[in-house]
């Protein structure tokens, strides 16, 4: 797939550039939770480049799912503050998304200034991919850049419809992600390991169906692994799992019994509260009152041994209940084991629940690709067409 890209020698001085980024990060006590390798931090690199080129940079993003309503908890005010820290220049937040007031703000912008529009999902037309919103956004700018790979699987107005209104280009983050993912899809180095966790079998099904014929091993954990254990009629106690995904898990186990490796032991407790008493038990010894919180010690050894010989590793989804530190050790250890293979292997991971774990493990910089996308990464790897990318094809 060849995408339209902005030439580095293009004169952008005085140009009004509309940039779609992904600043959908957790907000805690009014501050954006975004590390050195976080979504906002990485987007800021390209925003800074545009600013230094003399462009008037108008930034679009979303936060959460406000469902077309103005919800104060989802305001981008913390994102504006985070961008100010990173760019070291003032970043004004427009309370409006489009309209006369925004046009006036844009008219007053000096070369190199950055304006952040309020949460695009406050406008119901965004999710509807409405041409009217795209046209209103287009009035603000001369060109459009999409640098938010994580939303490229969404046919939304600021991702898809906008490309019919302005000269449109793929940003550097998207270019880099696509280049690495294409390498994984077209020229993977064997052995290839797919490591999948999280909750829902159905969301991972397209990826599993596409890669199971190609990969050497699939390591399964987390609540996803619990569904696979249930598919083998093993006890899972009171554990959380995707009940509707159990028949799908059973089908995959029947077709690929030698490729799918499941936990042989798990860490269980009476609840998933932090600090609760934890036991390590074999998967056939899970009591009716137990809740599975993490992969077990023997499983961790088996998984790490497999990872240690891999040359291509794709990972998505935690292998434990990482909302609690008590049940995240297995995932942290696997994150470090995968990172240690980089150089000898191509290592790819991503997703809103996976990337923070990699940062917490302090190994983010060691991955070949820490994708900003979860659903988008899975969809692209599964061979699905992404509207945001289709709109940027040459």
Task: Give structural notes.
The chain has 394 residues and is α/β, with parallel strands linked by helices. It has 14 helices and 17 strands. It has 2 domains: 158 residues, Phosphoglycerate kinase, N-terminal domain (Rossmann fold, 3-Layer(aba) Sandwich), CATH 3.40.50; 194 residues, Phosphoglycerate kinase, N-terminal domain (Rossmann fold).
CATH architecture group name of the largest domain: 3-Layer(aba) Sandwich
Radius of gyration: 22 Å
Number of helices: 14
Residue share in β-strands: 15-25%
Q: What is the terminal-to-terminal distance?
A: 8 Å
Structural class: alpha/beta
CATH class of the largest domain: Alpha Beta
| CATH H-level superfamily title of the largest domain | Phosphoglycerate kinase, N-terminal domain
Total of domains: 2
How many strand segments?
17
A few lines on this structure:
This protein has 14 helices and 17 strands. It is α/β, with parallel strands linked by helices. α10 (297-307) runs parallel beside α11.
Write the layout of secondary structure elements.
Layout: E1 16-20, E2 27-28, E3 31-32, H1 39-52, E4 56-60, H2 77-87, E5 91-94, H3 100-107, E6 114-117, H4 124-127, H5 131-138, E7 143-146, E8 168-170, H6 172-186, E9 192-196, H7 201-211, E10 217-220, H8 222-231, H9 246-255, E11 260-261, E12 265-269, E13 279-282, E14 291-295, H10 297-307, E15 312-316, H11 329-341, E16 346-350, H12 355-360, E17 369-371, H13 375-381, H14 387-390
Parallel strand pairs: 1-4, 1-7, 4-6, 5-6, 7-8, 9-10, 9-15, 10-11, 15-16, 16-17
Antiparallel strand pairs: 2-3, 12-13, 12-14
């Amino acid at each position: 797939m060849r995408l339209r890209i902005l030439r580095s020698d293009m004169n952008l001085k005085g140009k009004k550039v509309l940039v779609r980024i992904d600043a959908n990060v957790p907000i805690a006590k009014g501050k954006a939770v975004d590390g050195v390798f976080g979504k906002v931090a990485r987007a800021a690199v390209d925003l800074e480049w545009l600013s230094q080129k003399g462009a008037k940079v108008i930034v679009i993003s979303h936060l959460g799912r406000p469902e077309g309503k103005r919800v104060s908890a989802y305001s981008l005010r913390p994102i504006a503050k985070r961008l100010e820290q990173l760019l070291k220049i003032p970043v004004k937040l427009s309370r409006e998304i489009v309209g006369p007031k925004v046009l006036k703000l844009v008219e007053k912008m000096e070369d190199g200034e950055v304006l952040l529009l309020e949460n695009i999902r406050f406008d119901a037309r965004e999710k509807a991919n409405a041409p009217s919103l795209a046209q209103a956004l287009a009035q603000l700018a001369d060109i459009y850049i999409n640098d938010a790979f994580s939303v490229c699987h969404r046919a939304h107005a600021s991702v898809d419809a906008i490309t019919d209104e302005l000269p449109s280009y793929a940003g550097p983050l998207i270019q880099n992600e696509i280049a690495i993912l294409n390498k994984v899809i077209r020229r993977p180095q064997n052995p290839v390991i797919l490591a999948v966790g999280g909750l829902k079998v159905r969301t991972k099904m397209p990826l599993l169906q596409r890669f199971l014929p190609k990969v050497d091993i699939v390591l399964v954990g987390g609540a996803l692994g619990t569904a696979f254990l249930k598919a083998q009629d093993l006890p899972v106690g009171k554990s959380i799992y995707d009940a509707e995904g159990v028949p799908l898990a059973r089908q995959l186990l029947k077709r690929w019994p030698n490729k799918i490796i499941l936990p042989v032991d798990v860490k269980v407790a009476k609840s998933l509260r932090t600090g609760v008493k934890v036991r390590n038990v074999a998967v056939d010894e899970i009591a009716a009152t137990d809740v599975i919180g993490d992969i077990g010690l023997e499983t961790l050894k088996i998984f790490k041994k497999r990872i240690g010989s891999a040359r291509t590793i794709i990972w998505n989804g935690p292998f434990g209940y990482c909302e609690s530190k008590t049940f995240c050790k297995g995932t942290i250890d696997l994150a470090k084991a995968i990172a240690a293979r980089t150089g000898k292997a191509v290592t790819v991971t991503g997703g809103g629940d996976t990337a923070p774990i990699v940062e917490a493990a302090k190994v983010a910089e060691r991955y070949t690709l820490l994708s900003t996308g979860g659903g988008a990464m899975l969809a692209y790897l599964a061979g699905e067409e992404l509207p945001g990318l289709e709109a940027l094809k040459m």
